Amino acid sequence: SPSPVLSETFSLLSLLSISLAVLLILRYYLPLRTTPAYLLVPVFFALFLPASIVLLVPIDLASPLSDSSEPPPKGIWLPPSALRVSWRITYWLTFALTWFILPILAEYSDSGYREPKAKVIDSLRANAQYYAVVFGSGLVGFVYVLWSYESFDSSLKGTVIALAYCWGLVLAIYLMGHGLVSIPRRLFRSADVSGRLRRLQCHAPRIYEKMEDAEMELEDLEMLVGELGRRKGGSVELFRDWIEELVDMVRLEGQVGSTRRAVRGTGNERSLPNVITEKWLAELTRNLVRAKHARSRYLSEWNRLLEDVVRTQAILNSAGSKKLDFGRGGQGSTRVWDRLSVFNPYTRYLFHYHVAPYLRMFFGGLLGLASVCIVWSELVKDLFPSLSVIRYTVIHHDPLGESGGQVGLAGQAIAAFWLLYMCAAALISITEVKVWRGRALVKRNTAPESAFWYASQVARLSVPLSYNFMTFLGSGLYKDTVFYGFLGKLIDLTPLGEWFNYLFPAFILLPVFATLFGLYGKVQSMFGFGAAFGLGGEDDGEGDEESFYGTGSWREGRDLIERELNGTSASVRNRRADLVSSSTSSNGRRHGPILSIPRSSTGSSARGPTTPFATSPTSGAGGSRHQANTSARRVGRDRGQVVLDNEGDDENFFEALGHRMKNTIDTFDTPDWFKGFGEGIKKPKWMGGDDNRGGSSSNGGGDIRRWFGGGDGAG
């Protein structure tokens, strides 16, 4: 019999590679040196175990079901006993992380209490409703399985596995359907450089407004903490140490970014209660930490948008000079492949301006075709399994035989690609679809609760997607795997579970069509509750770019970006430390890049701030912000500033002429010899003139209103 030594060596090396990749992901989103172990270890296993499933599934497909099976395996394989142990360890650890460990730790990290015991109690209390729904559903399912199978041990185990699988499959199908459309569409849209710039400008006002709201919310809480620190006597003295910690937290934030802004808040005053309680302080601490992470999140999004705008504009500007440089030797770039690039300015221009768009279109078409194959296989896998396209790409040896065929090394690689793409489609949708509490992945500054939540979703989706993929290959093949003997038999334990496993994936058409035709945005505009259910992503509603034209959305975004990059806002000079403070950890070590604006390819340098974040002093409200943006359209036209070109501007002749005349008049400087003109002219007495000079009246025009029966300016 063949020896599995080479396959075992390959499996161990693959697991080491997966571990290294997971550590790099954690390092990207979390500061490893300052992150506590109770966060790093569970999140590491929550990512490592699902990633190892992508390795186990192809190995299981090619491995024999018994030690003496014929014919011999043709790819990477493991003995049945080793596979069985691997599946048990992987599944039950993933199950425990998904349903128990990660939810409790997430609420523990989000709790505002000081003592660990109080944090644990608060976490259990917060998860009580969640566990009540879980155990209630489990009890109903257990009664049904026990009535159908009449075996207590198998019924209990089958109920737990089947319910966890069904809930994970519902979530996975919805998210995967969204991602199967979103990924190819994003690649196609990014191929158009000018269209990419226009979409970034359309996103700018929304991100800017959220950033302003997050800042004002944080400032309100900081003022409340400051007022609390000044209170003396009474119940405050019972929690003096706790209050001092909050004051130090706010003071440290103010010292790091002391020049960033003047405190203004939202104007909604929050008064202190007469009696300070432990519960109130815990809620204040929780809200303060959440507000800091929310501000950091939107600062990061704004910084990333500015960087993308600068890169995209540099690519457009390189059409004339045939040279492209994203920074001085790549030092200002935050992308590793730019710093290590072997391109010179000319070859970089050729790649980004001519080659990259076609590569994006190629991969967009390839992944779009893969999405069609996945959706088609979901629809025909039950009634017409021989029509599944994925089946023929994986099984290269006797795919129509009674045994279901045999998977070789090439089939294993293709199976890993299919599984990775399905998981990527679902996981990318998690980052796009709106979720509660404003959870987000932020570079080097992800909130602990958000890290636990995203890790739990990865663990929850991996097993349902893996088993769903195996059903594409036909019952003759996947029912002869160790995975089916461990998990599939319990899912198909009852007719209800078997029919659900085969028929429910057909509902993938709902999220596919909803995303493809922008139904989320239409539902939200018609009924107003689309966002409440987390429907739609950042690309939803952008299928027709003309919907943005004429609304001022992209123009407002263009003006915002120009003011930020050129430093024309008055608050830019007072808030240079914003991005530095947001990317600085508690020990003072800065994490995250500072955007460096590259030199223009035409020879003029972009003398904007190295830290691009700034806010307008007139942006406290939506209306005033829009007026300020409208009046600032002439910003950035001087030499040496970053001016964002807008190819394909849809202004007609009269609109363009009006804007040019307005900009010209606004830039007029009144000569000194003309400023005193008219001061010596008096109005005649029959016009109501008196000793007022210059034809001006203290009542602001009341003389004119007298001609039409008006009063003295009272109205």
Looking at the structure, what is the overall shape? globular
Helix fraction, binned, reads 55-70%
Mean residue pLDDT: 77
What is the N-to-C order of secondary-structure elements (H for helix, E for strand)?
Answer: HHHHHHHHHHHHHHHHHHHHHHHH
Radius of gyration: 31 Å
Number of helices: 24
Report how far the terminal alpha carbons are from each other. Answer: 103 Å
Seen as an oligomer or otherwise, the chain set is: single chain
What amount of the residues lies in strands? under 5%
Structural class: mainly alpha
Q: How is the biggest beta sheet arranged?
A: none
**Total E-strand runs:** 0
Low-confidence stretches: 256-263, 531-535, 540-552, 569-650, 688-715
Protein architecture, described:
The chain is mostly helical and 715 residues long. Helix content is 61%, strand content 0%. The protein has 24 helices and no strands. The chain has helices spanning 5-29, 37-62, 80-110, 116-149, 152-190, 193-230, 240-256, 278-321, 336-339, 345-380, 389-394, 409-432, 448-470, 475-478, 482-491, 495-503, 509-516, 519-527, 553-566, 578-582, 622-631, 653-666, 672-675, 702-706. Helix 5 runs parallel beside helix 17 and helix 6 packs antiparallel against helix 8 (278-321). The radius of gyration is 31 Å and the shape is globular. Mean pLDDT is 77; it is low at 256-263, 531-535, 540-552, 569-650 and 688-715.
